[in-house]
């Protein structure tokens, strides 16, 4: 707890003091399904308190005062002899499958068990395309540039700036000239 206080609250300010208390007490009690009996200061809850000194150093990380069920059991960093009686401990048996830990699994299970329902709709009555291949589509804009009809195209059909490429030539020269040698032969 001392390391979390020093690194999380004092040095990096990732946590505020309330978030620190939630990390070390409330969330821990929720994780073990002991909340609100543990991890909360309220009527009916166990008032187990640990008080740390404000000038706490990491080398001396002992609590100043520990209050257990209304009794001071540690004071000035040492156990108080008169407050500890043999057999005064109390075993808490938490309920299994707490909501804090397993609450999301119940939600996932419920969403998986919910059945998908069909949406009632009327049959589609709009136009349907004939996809059997006998219907011809209108020619597209790039129709004249296909290889099989390229030689028969009148030259004025080419857009301005289009260069004349012979269909028998498989490659065109790159910008800057021909490239018939590998890069290491230059």
UniProtKB/TrEMBL annotation:
Q: What is its EC number?
A: 3.5.2.2
Which SUPFAM superfamilies does this one have? Composite domain of metallo-dependent hydrolases
* Reaction it catalyzes: 5,6-dihydrouracil + H2O = 3-(carbamoylamino)propanoate + H(+)
Instruction: Write out the GO biological process terms.
Output: pyrimidine nucleobase catabolic process
InterPro entries from the entry?
Amidohydro-rel (IPR006680), Metal-dep_hydrolase_composite (IPR011059), Metallo-dep_Hydrolases_sf (IPR050378)
Instruction: Give an example GO cellular component term for this record.
Output: cytosol
Which residue ranges does the record assign to the Amidohydrolase-related domain?
A: 10-72
Q: Which GO terms describe its molecular function?
A: dihydropyrimidinase activity
As cofactor, the record names: Zn(2+)
User: Can you say what this protein is called?
Assistant: dihydropyrimidinase
Organism per entry: Dibothriocephalus latus
């Amino acid at each position: 707890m001392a390391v979390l206080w020093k690194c999380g609250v004092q040095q990096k300010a990732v946590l505020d003091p309330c978030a620190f208390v939630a990390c070390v007490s409330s969330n821990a009690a929720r994780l073990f399904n002991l909340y609100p009996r543990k991890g909360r200061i309220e009527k009916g809850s166990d008032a187990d308190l640990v008080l740390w000194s404000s000038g706490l150093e990491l080398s001396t990380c002992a609590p100043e005062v520990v209050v257990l069920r209304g009794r001071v059991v540690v004071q000035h960093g040492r156990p108080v002899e008169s407050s500890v009686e043999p057999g005064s401990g109390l075993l808490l048996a938490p309920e299994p499958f707490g909501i804090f830990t397993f609450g999301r699994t119940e939600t996932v299970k419920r969403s998986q068990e919910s059945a998908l329902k069909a949406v009632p709709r009327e049959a589609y009555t709009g136009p349907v395309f004939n996809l059997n291949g006998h219907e011809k589509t209108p020619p597209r804009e790039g129709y004249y540039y296909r290889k099989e009809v390229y030689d028969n195209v009148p030259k004025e059909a080419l857009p301005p700036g289009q260069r004349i490429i012979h269909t028998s030539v498989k490659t065109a020269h790159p910008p800057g000239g021909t490239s018939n040698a590998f890069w290491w032969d230059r």
